[in-house]
Specification:
There is one protein chain. The protein is of the alpha/beta class. 34% of the residues lie in helices and 11% in strands. It is built from seven helices and four strands, in the order αααβαβαβαβα. α2 packs across α3 and α5 packs parallel to α6. It is globular, with a radius of gyration of 21 Å. The two termini are 28 Å apart. The relative contact order is 0.10. The chain binds iron/sulfur cluster. The site of iron/sulfur cluster has 11 residues, from loops.
Length: 216
């Protein structure tokens, strides 16, 4: 066992039901009790973290294995009292966003969607060379997640949903969004937006993932 073992090295997962022993490196056992108590306290009462934690647990417990993620987002939005849902969408998933908007509105929620290319700023304006564009020699707007967040902040959305933002652009959106953020679609351009497929198939078809030949 490596000296810095963590939960990914644990075969017991006893923190879930306490039905087995805890391993010697257990992060539950090693936690500072007062730090844990402080966090647990934040889930109690009427603060935003507490209401969010209860709403998420209620959706999980009520609909476990019964609802799609689209429906779970609606159930979660209702439980946190959200009326206005912001959508930060990728241009490549705009058709999916249009359907999602119709569904949210059919369930009585207001929507406000902002495309990743909003502002229409060419990539070269932030120092990205033309060779790094998907199509060279023409205007190609950068993804603008901070502006997406600022527009949704100005719209006072109650919950923001990511539809397929790129890796890293999603990070910036989450960093700058004032409203809580959840994800409907995690973009994977190769695997039909199912990034877990790379993990399911890493033992054979995607074994290159486990023996990298060069730094990505
Ligand atoms: S907290 Fe402890 S029991 Fe739970 S997964 Fe991590 S190491 Fe295992």
């Amino acid at each position: 066992m490596k000296s810095d073992a963590t939960c990914s090295d644990c075969g017991l997962l006893s923190c879930y039901r306490r039905d087995k022993i805890f391993p010697p490196f257990c992060l539950t056992q090693a936690s500072d009790p007062s730090a844990l108590a402080e966090v647990v306290e934040s889930y109690r009462g009427e603060g935003e973290d507490a209401r969010t934690a209860r709403a998420a647990a209620e959706v999980e417990g009520t609909y476990y294995g019964k609802l799609t993620r689209v429906e779970e987002i609606i159930a979660f939005a209702n439980r946190i009292g959200a009326k206005r849902v912001g959508i930060a969408t990728c241009i490549g998933l705009i058709e999916e966003t249009r359907v999602f908007v119709k569904i949210l509105e059919a369930h009585g929620l207001e929507t406000y969607a902002v495309l990743c290319k909003v502002g229409s700023v060419d990539k070269t304006e932030i120092g990205i060379p033309d060779e790094m564009k998907v199509a060279r020699g023409c205007h190609e707007s950068l993804c603008n997640p901070i502006f997406q967040a600022k527009i949704l902040n100005a719209q006072k959305t109650d919950l923001n949903v990511i539809v397929g933002l790129c890796v890293g652009h999603d990070s910036l959106f989450m960093k700058h969004s004032e409203a809580l953020v959840t994800t409907l679609i995690t973009k994977d351009r190769v695997l039909g937006h199912n990034p877990a497929a790379a993990l399911y198939t890493a033992g054979f078809y995607y074994k290159r993932l486990l023996s990298p030949e060069k730094k990505l």
